[in-house]
Write a structure and sequence with these properties.
The chain folds into two domains: 214 residues, Metalloenzyme, LuxS/M16 peptidase-like (Cytochrome Bc1 Complex, Chain A, domain 1, 2-Layer Sandwich), CATH 3.30.830.10; 193 residues, Cytochrome Bc1 Complex, Chain A, domain 1 (2-Layer Sandwich). It is 43% helix and 18% strand. It has 16 helices and twelve strands. The strands form two sheets. It has a seven-stranded mixed β-sheet, sandwiched between helices.
Length: 434
Protein backbone atom coordinates (compact mmCIF):
# COMPACT_ATOMS: atom_id res chain seq x y z
CA UNK A 1 0.00 0.00 0.00
CA UNK A 2 1.46 3.38 -1.08
CA UNK A 3 0.46 6.80 0.26
CA UNK A 4 0.63 10.37 -1.09
CA UNK A 5 -0.75 13.55 0.47
CA UNK A 6 -0.87 16.97 -1.21
CA UNK A 7 -1.98 20.51 -0.24
CA UNK A 8 -5.08 22.35 -1.51
CA UNK A 9 -8.09 20.07 -1.33
CA UNK A 10 -5.48 17.76 0.18
CA UNK A 11 -7.12 14.43 -0.53
CA UNK A 12 -5.28 11.37 0.61
CA UNK A 13 -4.56 8.80 -2.09
CA UNK A 14 -4.00 5.13 -1.32
CA UNK A 15 -3.33 2.24 -3.66
CA UNK A 16 -4.56 -1.02 -2.17
CA UNK A 17 -2.57 -4.21 -2.59
CA UNK A 18 -4.88 -5.40 -5.38
CA UNK A 19 -4.52 -2.16 -7.39
CA UNK A 20 -7.69 -0.34 -6.34
CA UNK A 21 -7.16 3.40 -5.81
CA UNK A 22 -8.82 5.11 -2.83
CA UNK A 23 -9.05 8.90 -2.55
CA UNK A 24 -10.47 10.52 0.56
CA UNK A 25 -11.23 14.15 1.35
CA UNK A 26 -12.45 15.04 4.83
CA UNK A 27 -15.03 17.86 5.04
CA UNK A 28 -17.22 19.01 7.90
CA UNK A 29 -19.80 21.35 6.33
CA UNK A 30 -22.52 18.74 6.84
CA UNK A 31 -22.64 15.37 8.66
CA UNK A 32 -22.74 13.55 5.33
CA UNK A 33 -20.48 11.48 3.09
CA UNK A 34 -20.43 10.98 -0.68
CA UNK A 35 -19.18 7.63 -1.98
CA UNK A 36 -18.18 7.39 -5.64
CA UNK A 37 -16.97 4.11 -7.14
CA UNK A 38 -15.90 4.50 -10.76
CA UNK A 39 -14.75 1.76 -13.13
CA UNK A 40 -13.25 1.92 -16.60
CA UNK A 41 -16.25 0.13 -18.01
CA UNK A 42 -18.08 2.59 -20.28
CA UNK A 43 -19.45 2.14 -23.78
CA UNK A 44 -15.91 2.24 -25.22
CA UNK A 45 -15.60 -1.33 -23.91
CA UNK A 46 -18.74 -2.61 -25.69
CA UNK A 47 -18.01 -5.47 -28.11
CA UNK A 48 -18.98 -4.40 -31.66
CA UNK A 49 -21.77 -6.99 -31.74
CA UNK A 50 -23.12 -5.91 -28.35
CA UNK A 51 -23.28 -2.12 -28.55
CA UNK A 52 -25.18 -0.92 -25.49
CA UNK A 53 -23.79 -3.61 -23.18
CA UNK A 54 -22.22 -1.15 -20.72
CA UNK A 55 -25.44 0.85 -20.56
CA UNK A 56 -27.43 -2.34 -20.01
CA UNK A 57 -25.11 -3.31 -17.16
CA UNK A 58 -25.58 0.12 -15.58
CA UNK A 59 -29.33 -0.49 -15.47
CA UNK A 60 -29.17 -3.93 -13.86
CA UNK A 61 -25.97 -4.06 -11.77
CA UNK A 62 -27.77 -2.87 -8.62
CA UNK A 63 -30.77 -5.18 -9.02
CA UNK A 64 -29.49 -7.92 -6.74
CA UNK A 65 -26.25 -9.49 -5.52
CA UNK A 66 -25.26 -12.98 -4.51
CA UNK A 67 -26.50 -12.28 -0.96
CA UNK A 68 -29.10 -9.50 -1.42
CA UNK A 69 -32.22 -9.30 -3.54
CA UNK A 70 -33.21 -6.12 -5.37
CA UNK A 71 -35.87 -5.52 -2.70
CA UNK A 72 -33.32 -5.93 0.09
CA UNK A 73 -30.98 -3.46 -1.58
CA UNK A 74 -33.85 -0.98 -1.99
CA UNK A 75 -34.83 -1.40 1.68
CA UNK A 76 -31.24 -0.87 2.84
CA UNK A 77 -31.07 2.37 0.83
CA UNK A 78 -34.55 3.66 1.61
CA UNK A 79 -34.15 2.91 5.31
CA UNK A 80 -31.27 5.38 5.42
CA UNK A 81 -32.74 7.90 3.00
CA UNK A 82 -30.07 7.15 0.38
CA UNK A 83 -30.38 7.12 -3.41
CA UNK A 84 -27.83 5.13 -5.38
CA UNK A 85 -27.02 6.57 -8.80
CA UNK A 86 -25.47 4.45 -11.55
CA UNK A 87 -24.16 6.44 -14.51
CA UNK A 88 -22.44 5.19 -17.65
CA UNK A 89 -20.34 7.30 -20.04
CA UNK A 90 -18.07 6.45 -22.93
CA UNK A 91 -15.16 5.60 -20.61
CA UNK A 92 -16.72 4.99 -17.19
CA UNK A 93 -19.42 3.31 -15.21
CA UNK A 94 -19.88 4.96 -11.83
CA UNK A 95 -21.93 4.16 -8.74
CA UNK A 96 -22.40 6.98 -6.26
CA UNK A 97 -24.48 7.89 -3.24
CA UNK A 98 -24.56 10.37 -0.36
CA UNK A 99 -25.38 9.18 3.13
CA UNK A 100 -25.15 10.37 6.72
CA UNK A 101 -21.72 10.00 8.28
CA UNK A 102 -23.07 7.43 10.71
CA UNK A 103 -24.13 5.24 7.78
CA UNK A 104 -20.81 5.39 5.94
CA UNK A 105 -19.61 1.89 6.78
CA UNK A 106 -22.80 -0.04 5.91
CA UNK A 107 -23.23 2.03 2.73
CA UNK A 108 -19.65 1.40 1.61
CA UNK A 109 -20.17 -2.30 2.26
CA UNK A 110 -23.39 -2.25 0.19
CA UNK A 111 -21.72 -0.39 -2.68
CA UNK A 112 -18.84 -2.87 -2.57
CA UNK A 113 -21.23 -5.83 -2.67
CA UNK A 114 -22.99 -4.39 -5.71
CA UNK A 115 -19.69 -3.71 -7.46
CA UNK A 116 -18.11 -7.07 -6.78
CA UNK A 117 -20.96 -9.57 -6.66
CA UNK A 118 -23.96 -8.58 -8.82
CA UNK A 119 -26.27 -11.50 -9.54
CA UNK A 120 -28.07 -10.24 -12.67
CA UNK A 121 -31.33 -12.08 -11.89
CA UNK A 122 -33.03 -13.22 -15.08
CA UNK A 123 -36.33 -11.46 -14.42
CA UNK A 124 -34.49 -8.20 -13.67
CA UNK A 125 -32.51 -8.52 -16.91
CA UNK A 126 -35.73 -8.97 -18.88
CA UNK A 127 -37.40 -6.03 -17.13
CA UNK A 128 -34.48 -3.67 -17.73
CA UNK A 129 -34.22 -4.82 -21.35
CA UNK A 130 -37.81 -3.73 -21.90
CA UNK A 131 -37.11 -0.37 -20.26
CA UNK A 132 -34.03 0.23 -22.40
CA UNK A 133 -35.89 -0.62 -25.61
CA UNK A 134 -38.62 1.83 -24.60
CA UNK A 135 -35.98 4.47 -23.86
CA UNK A 136 -34.38 3.95 -27.30
CA UNK A 137 -37.76 4.37 -28.97
CA UNK A 138 -38.31 7.57 -27.00
CA UNK A 139 -34.88 8.83 -28.11
CA UNK A 140 -35.78 8.10 -31.71
CA UNK A 141 -38.81 10.35 -31.24
CA UNK A 142 -36.74 13.18 -29.73
CA UNK A 143 -35.26 15.69 -32.21
CA UNK A 144 -32.56 16.86 -29.76
CA UNK A 145 -31.27 13.31 -29.24
CA UNK A 146 -31.46 12.44 -32.92
CA UNK A 147 -29.55 15.59 -33.88
CA UNK A 148 -26.72 14.87 -31.43
CA UNK A 149 -26.52 11.18 -32.34
CA UNK A 150 -26.52 12.13 -36.02
CA UNK A 151 -23.71 14.61 -35.48
CA UNK A 152 -21.63 12.13 -33.50
CA UNK A 153 -22.01 9.64 -36.34
CA UNK A 154 -20.74 12.26 -38.79
CA UNK A 155 -17.79 13.21 -36.58
CA UNK A 156 -16.85 9.63 -35.66
CA UNK A 157 -17.83 7.26 -38.49
CA UNK A 158 -16.74 3.75 -39.37
CA UNK A 159 -17.51 2.15 -36.02
CA UNK A 160 -15.49 4.60 -33.90
CA UNK A 161 -16.59 4.15 -30.28
CA UNK A 162 -17.40 7.84 -29.85
CA UNK A 163 -19.83 7.65 -32.76
CA UNK A 164 -21.80 4.67 -31.48
CA UNK A 165 -25.04 5.00 -29.57
CA UNK A 166 -24.27 4.45 -25.91
CA UNK A 167 -27.64 2.73 -25.36
CA UNK A 168 -27.17 0.58 -28.43
CA UNK A 169 -29.93 -0.24 -30.87
CA UNK A 170 -33.08 -2.24 -30.35
CA UNK A 171 -31.48 -5.18 -32.17
CA UNK A 172 -28.27 -5.17 -30.11
CA UNK A 173 -30.12 -4.73 -26.81
CA UNK A 174 -32.50 -7.58 -27.60
CA UNK A 175 -29.48 -9.80 -28.36
CA UNK A 176 -27.73 -9.14 -25.02
CA UNK A 177 -27.95 -12.08 -22.62
CA UNK A 178 -27.39 -12.53 -18.91
CA UNK A 179 -24.16 -14.35 -19.81
CA UNK A 180 -23.02 -11.28 -21.77
CA UNK A 181 -23.60 -9.09 -18.73
CA UNK A 182 -21.72 -11.50 -16.46
CA UNK A 183 -18.77 -11.65 -18.86
CA UNK A 184 -18.64 -7.87 -19.29
CA UNK A 185 -18.71 -7.39 -15.51
CA UNK A 186 -15.99 -9.98 -15.00
CA UNK A 187 -13.77 -8.38 -17.65
CA UNK A 188 -14.16 -4.72 -16.64
CA UNK A 189 -15.08 -4.57 -12.93
CA UNK A 190 -11.72 -5.34 -11.37
CA UNK A 191 -9.70 -3.66 -8.60
CA UNK A 192 -7.22 -2.18 -11.06
CA UNK A 193 -10.15 -0.53 -12.84
CA UNK A 194 -11.61 0.93 -9.64
CA UNK A 195 -11.23 4.50 -8.42
CA UNK A 196 -13.04 4.92 -5.10
CA UNK A 197 -13.53 8.50 -3.92
CA UNK A 198 -15.01 9.30 -0.51
CA UNK A 199 -15.70 12.90 0.48
CA UNK A 200 -17.32 14.10 3.68
CA UNK A 201 -17.47 13.98 7.44
CA UNK A 202 -15.30 10.92 7.98
CA UNK A 203 -11.54 10.83 8.69
CA UNK A 204 -9.37 9.78 5.77
CA UNK A 205 -7.61 6.97 7.71
CA UNK A 206 -11.01 5.47 8.48
CA UNK A 207 -11.92 5.61 4.79
CA UNK A 208 -8.74 3.76 3.89
CA UNK A 209 -9.27 1.14 6.59
CA UNK A 210 -12.86 0.46 5.57
CA UNK A 211 -12.07 0.44 1.85
CA UNK A 212 -9.34 -2.12 2.48
CA UNK A 213 -11.74 -4.22 4.55
CA UNK A 214 -14.40 -4.18 1.82
CA UNK A 215 -12.24 -4.50 -1.31
CA UNK A 216 -8.86 -6.04 -0.40
CA UNK A 217 -9.95 -9.67 -0.82
CA UNK A 218 -11.12 -8.94 -4.36
CA UNK A 219 -8.56 -10.58 -6.68
CA UNK A 220 -6.66 -8.06 -8.78
CA UNK A 221 -6.43 -8.32 -12.56
CA UNK A 222 -5.30 -5.80 -15.17
CA UNK A 223 -7.89 -4.40 -17.59
CA UNK A 224 -6.47 -3.30 -20.96
CA UNK A 225 -7.87 0.00 -22.16
CA UNK A 226 -9.11 -0.04 -25.76
CA UNK A 227 -7.27 2.34 -28.05
CA UNK A 228 -9.16 5.44 -29.17
CA UNK A 229 -8.28 6.01 -32.83
CA UNK A 230 -7.12 9.47 -33.83
CA UNK A 231 -9.59 11.32 -36.05
CA UNK A 232 -8.10 13.17 -39.03
CA UNK A 233 -9.11 16.78 -39.65
CA UNK A 234 -12.19 16.84 -41.85
CA UNK A 235 -11.65 18.09 -45.38
CA UNK A 236 -15.22 19.13 -46.17
CA UNK A 237 -18.52 20.11 -44.63
CA UNK A 238 -20.88 17.24 -43.83
CA UNK A 239 -24.63 17.51 -43.35
CA UNK A 240 -27.39 15.17 -42.22
CA UNK A 241 -31.12 15.90 -42.04
CA UNK A 242 -33.46 13.69 -39.99
CA UNK A 243 -37.02 14.71 -40.97
CA UNK A 244 -39.45 14.49 -38.03
CA UNK A 245 -42.39 16.35 -39.49
CA UNK A 246 -44.74 15.82 -36.55
CA UNK A 247 -42.53 17.86 -34.20
CA UNK A 248 -42.93 21.51 -33.25
CA UNK A 249 -39.23 22.35 -33.02
CA UNK A 250 -36.11 21.62 -35.02
CA UNK A 251 -32.86 20.86 -33.21
CA UNK A 252 -29.46 21.68 -34.67
CA UNK A 253 -26.24 19.94 -33.67
CA UNK A 254 -23.14 21.45 -35.28
CA UNK A 255 -19.56 20.67 -34.49
CA UNK A 256 -16.01 19.53 -34.98
CA UNK A 257 -13.59 16.96 -33.59
CA UNK A 258 -11.48 18.86 -31.05
CA UNK A 259 -8.66 17.70 -28.75
CA UNK A 260 -7.61 15.21 -26.13
CA UNK A 261 -7.75 16.26 -22.48
CA UNK A 262 -3.97 16.06 -22.25
CA UNK A 263 -3.49 18.55 -25.11
CA UNK A 264 -1.65 21.67 -23.83
CA UNK A 265 -4.20 23.77 -25.75
CA UNK A 266 -7.02 22.58 -23.46
CA UNK A 267 -7.19 25.73 -21.35
CA UNK A 268 -7.09 28.08 -24.35
CA UNK A 269 -9.94 26.12 -25.93
CA UNK A 270 -11.81 26.23 -22.62
CA UNK A 271 -11.64 30.03 -22.63
CA UNK A 272 -12.52 30.28 -26.32
CA UNK A 273 -15.58 28.08 -25.85
CA UNK A 274 -16.71 30.22 -22.93
CA UNK A 275 -16.58 33.36 -25.07
CA UNK A 276 -18.34 31.67 -27.98
CA UNK A 277 -21.24 29.92 -26.31
CA UNK A 278 -21.10 29.69 -22.52
CA UNK A 279 -20.53 33.04 -20.83
CA UNK A 280 -23.46 35.16 -19.55
CA UNK A 281 -26.60 34.32 -21.60
CA UNK A 282 -24.75 32.02 -23.96
CA UNK A 283 -21.74 33.99 -25.15
CA UNK A 284 -21.59 35.41 -28.64
CA UNK A 285 -23.93 32.74 -30.01
CA UNK A 286 -26.60 33.47 -27.42
CA UNK A 287 -26.26 37.21 -27.83
CA UNK A 288 -26.59 37.05 -31.61
CA UNK A 289 -28.99 34.21 -32.34
CA UNK A 290 -31.26 34.25 -29.32
CA UNK A 291 -31.15 37.75 -27.88
CA UNK A 292 -30.68 40.05 -30.89
CA UNK A 293 -32.27 37.94 -33.65
CA UNK A 294 -34.80 36.11 -31.49
CA UNK A 295 -34.45 32.90 -33.51
CA UNK A 296 -33.57 30.24 -30.95
CA UNK A 297 -35.24 28.70 -27.94
CA UNK A 298 -31.74 27.84 -26.81
CA UNK A 299 -28.22 28.00 -28.20
CA UNK A 300 -24.87 27.17 -26.59
CA UNK A 301 -21.52 25.55 -27.25
CA UNK A 302 -19.46 23.03 -25.32
CA UNK A 303 -16.61 20.59 -25.78
CA UNK A 304 -15.61 17.29 -24.28
CA UNK A 305 -11.86 16.78 -24.38
CA UNK A 306 -11.39 13.12 -23.54
CA UNK A 307 -8.91 10.25 -23.80
CA UNK A 308 -9.43 10.63 -27.54
CA UNK A 309 -10.17 13.80 -29.46
CA UNK A 310 -13.59 14.74 -28.15
CA UNK A 311 -16.36 16.71 -29.84
CA UNK A 312 -16.75 20.49 -29.90
CA UNK A 313 -20.52 20.96 -30.16
CA UNK A 314 -22.88 23.84 -30.86
CA UNK A 315 -26.52 23.14 -30.06
CA UNK A 316 -29.62 25.16 -30.97
CA UNK A 317 -33.37 24.66 -30.90
CA UNK A 318 -35.39 26.73 -33.38
CA UNK A 319 -38.65 26.90 -35.31
CA UNK A 320 -38.45 25.00 -38.58
CA UNK A 321 -38.64 28.22 -40.57
CA UNK A 322 -35.53 29.53 -38.85
CA UNK A 323 -33.22 26.56 -39.40
CA UNK A 324 -31.36 27.93 -42.40
CA UNK A 325 -31.04 31.41 -40.86
CA UNK A 326 -29.79 29.95 -37.58
CA UNK A 327 -27.18 27.78 -39.33
CA UNK A 328 -26.04 30.78 -41.37
CA UNK A 329 -25.75 32.82 -38.16
CA UNK A 330 -23.64 30.10 -36.51
CA UNK A 331 -21.38 30.09 -39.56
CA UNK A 332 -21.10 33.88 -39.39
CA UNK A 333 -20.22 33.95 -35.68
CA UNK A 334 -17.54 31.29 -36.14
CA UNK A 335 -15.98 33.09 -39.10
CA UNK A 336 -16.04 36.38 -37.21
CA UNK A 337 -14.32 34.88 -34.18
CA UNK A 338 -11.74 33.08 -36.32
CA UNK A 339 -11.02 36.22 -38.34
CA UNK A 340 -11.32 39.02 -35.79
CA UNK A 341 -10.48 37.05 -32.66
CA UNK A 342 -11.57 37.44 -29.07
CA UNK A 343 -11.40 40.90 -27.53
CA UNK A 344 -9.25 41.63 -24.47
CA UNK A 345 -12.40 42.35 -22.48
CA UNK A 346 -13.97 39.00 -23.46
CA UNK A 347 -10.75 37.24 -22.50
CA UNK A 348 -10.61 38.90 -19.08
CA UNK A 349 -14.30 38.35 -18.30
CA UNK A 350 -14.23 34.71 -19.36
CA UNK A 351 -11.13 33.93 -17.32
CA UNK A 352 -12.69 35.68 -14.34
CA UNK A 353 -15.88 33.65 -14.80
CA UNK A 354 -14.09 30.32 -15.15
CA UNK A 355 -11.85 30.88 -12.14
CA UNK A 356 -14.70 32.32 -10.09
CA UNK A 357 -16.95 29.34 -10.78
CA UNK A 358 -14.46 26.88 -9.30
CA UNK A 359 -15.55 27.38 -5.67
CA UNK A 360 -19.15 26.65 -6.66
CA UNK A 361 -18.02 23.43 -8.32
CA UNK A 362 -16.30 22.37 -5.11
CA UNK A 363 -18.86 23.54 -2.57
CA UNK A 364 -20.57 20.13 -2.19
CA UNK A 365 -19.21 16.70 -1.35
CA UNK A 366 -20.60 15.36 -4.64
CA UNK A 367 -18.90 18.18 -6.57
CA UNK A 368 -15.56 17.48 -4.94
CA UNK A 369 -15.94 13.75 -5.60
CA UNK A 370 -16.63 14.35 -9.31
CA UNK A 371 -13.63 16.70 -9.52
CA UNK A 372 -11.33 14.16 -7.88
CA UNK A 373 -12.54 11.36 -10.14
CA UNK A 374 -11.64 13.46 -13.19
CA UNK A 375 -8.26 14.37 -11.67
CA UNK A 376 -7.50 10.71 -11.06
CA UNK A 377 -8.66 9.49 -14.46
CA UNK A 378 -6.68 12.03 -16.48
CA UNK A 379 -3.68 12.05 -14.13
CA UNK A 380 -3.92 15.79 -13.52
CA UNK A 381 -2.27 15.69 -10.08
CA UNK A 382 -3.84 15.97 -6.65
CA UNK A 383 -2.88 19.64 -6.51
CA UNK A 384 -4.87 20.39 -9.67
CA UNK A 385 -7.35 22.54 -7.75
CA UNK A 386 -4.47 24.81 -6.73
CA UNK A 387 -2.93 24.98 -10.21
CA UNK A 388 -6.17 25.36 -12.19
CA UNK A 389 -6.69 29.12 -11.60
CA UNK A 390 -3.16 29.83 -12.80
CA UNK A 391 -3.55 27.53 -15.81
CA UNK A 392 -6.61 29.52 -16.85
CA UNK A 393 -5.19 32.95 -16.02
CA UNK A 394 -2.01 32.21 -17.97
CA UNK A 395 -3.99 31.77 -21.22
CA UNK A 396 -3.12 34.57 -23.63
CA UNK A 397 -5.18 36.35 -26.24
CA UNK A 398 -2.88 34.95 -28.92
CA UNK A 399 -3.45 31.38 -27.73
CA UNK A 400 -7.24 31.74 -27.71
CA UNK A 401 -7.28 33.30 -31.16
CA UNK A 402 -4.99 30.57 -32.49
CA UNK A 403 -7.49 27.94 -31.30
CA UNK A 404 -10.34 29.87 -32.91
CA UNK A 405 -8.51 29.87 -36.23
CA UNK A 406 -7.64 26.18 -35.86
CA UNK A 407 -11.13 24.89 -35.09
CA UNK A 408 -13.81 27.38 -36.11
CA UNK A 409 -13.84 26.63 -39.83
CA UNK A 410 -17.45 26.29 -41.06
CA UNK A 411 -16.29 24.65 -44.29
CA UNK A 412 -15.05 21.70 -42.21
CA UNK A 413 -18.02 21.52 -39.84
CA UNK A 414 -20.43 18.62 -39.43
CA UNK A 415 -24.10 19.50 -39.11
CA UNK A 416 -27.15 17.45 -38.15
CA UNK A 417 -30.72 18.80 -38.17
CA UNK A 418 -33.65 16.86 -36.71
CA UNK A 419 -37.26 17.99 -36.66
CA UNK A 420 -39.94 19.39 -39.01
CA UNK A 421 -37.44 20.33 -41.68
CA UNK A 422 -36.48 19.00 -45.10
CA UNK A 423 -34.05 20.15 -47.74
CA UNK A 424 -32.93 19.01 -51.14
CA UNK A 425 -29.92 17.02 -50.01
CA UNK A 426 -30.40 13.29 -49.72
CA UNK A 427 -29.03 11.53 -46.66
CA UNK A 428 -26.65 9.55 -48.89
CA UNK A 429 -25.25 12.69 -50.49
CA UNK A 430 -25.14 14.48 -47.13
CA UNK A 431 -22.98 11.84 -45.55
CA UNK A 432 -20.77 11.03 -48.53
CA UNK A 433 -17.67 12.50 -46.87
CA UNK A 434 -18.08 10.67 -43.59
Amino acid sequence: MTTAVHPGLAPSRETLSNGAVVLAKETHATPAVTISATFRAGSLYDPPSRVGLAHFLSRVVDRGTESRSADEIAEALDGRGVSLMVVETRHHLALSCTCLSEDFEPMLELVGDICMRPAFPGHEVDTRRGEIVTSIRQDEDNPAVMAVEGLMGLLYPDGHAYGRRTKGTIDTVEAITRADLQAFHRDTFTPSSLSLVVVGDVPAPRVTTQAARVFCDWPGRAVPDPAVPTRPVAGARRRLVVPMMNKAQADIAYGFVSIRRTDPAYYALLVMNNVLGQYALGGRLGDSIRERQGMAYYVFSGFEANVGEGPFLIRAGVEAGNVDRAVASIDEELRRMATDGVTPRELAESKQYLVGSMPRTLETNAGIAAFLQSVEFFGLGLDHDLRLPRLINDVTLEQVNAEARRFLVPERAALAIAGPYEDGESAAHATADR
